[in-house]
Amino acid sequence: MLRLKTFEFNPFGEVTVVLYDALSRHAIVVDPGMLFDSERRAFDDFIASEHLQLLKLLHTHLHLDHCFGSAYLRAKYGAPVCASAADAELGLSLGQQCRRFGLPGHFEPLAIDTALTDGDTIAIADTRLEVIAVPGHSPGGLAYYCADYGFVISGDCLFGGSIGRTDLPGGDYATLVDSIRCRLLTLPDETLVVAGHGNATNIGAEKEYNPYLR
User: Fold this and answer.
1) How far apart are CA 47 and CA 27, in angstroms?
2) Which of 112, 123, 177, 207 is at 20 to 30 A from 26, Cα to Cα?
3) Closest CA to 127 of 145, 153, 141, 154
4) What is the pLDDT of residues 99-154, one digit of tens each?
5) Are 79 and 29 in contact (CB under 8 A)?
6) How many CB atoms lie within 10 A of CB 58?
């Protein structure tokens, strides 16, 4: 049985997702955003309390708030960083991203260990996640769809009543809207959308009410 746990981390209010199998205790993390020691401790305490084996670090994209904790988790748990190669430059420019937002401290470039592409599948025990390319917020934006459990992790592509910003380097409004309409709104209406910020929503509600998608 697949279980889903969310955390809200860092000053940007980023949503980090842990997916794990209740029997095998295998786990993956999507968008590890822990920045502060207290956030790292909260995450580690959860992994320890659930006796989880962390296998992969999946990323919807490599903007700073979604990968603050990636290097820490890779070093601690030996889990590879998985993302689209189209976002490789963003990962390598993590330090510049942080300086652009006025964050103190030194941030090393983040390299991708495993490149993911549209149509790939990620296994967690007997459950599969489908990798869906959703560029526009960033060049290599990805979403992760689980048909068996009826949810999609959308990152900063789609929010409840909104969409991701496109004014950062590599963003493109028309591309983002096309990605959402053609790749996400085609999922079943009841599909839960676990967004990168804010509350969850569902595909049917965004079809009907999202002002950016009318």
Assistant:
1) 9
2) 112
3) 145
4) 988 887 788 999 999 999 999 999 999 999 999 999 999 999 999 999 999 999 99
5) yes
6) 26
Q: Which two tokens stand for residue 41?
A: 């401790």
Question: Can you tell me which residue has the tokens 């993590």?
Answer: 94
Give the tokens for residue 73.
Answer: 């988790």
Taking CA atoms, 203 is separated from 82, 130, 159, in Å, by 25, 17, 10
The residue type at 157: C
Nearest alpha carbon to residue 20 among 49, 60, 59, 63: 49
Tokens of 202: 């569902």
Q: Is the pTM of this model over 0.85?
A: yes
**Cα–Cα dist 3/9, whole Å:** 20
pLDDT tens sequence across 143-200: 999 999 999 999 999 999 999 999 998 999 999 999 999 999 999 999 999 999 999 9
Listed in sequence order, the DSSP H helices in the chain are 37-49, 70-77, 88-92, 94-100, 173-179, 203-209
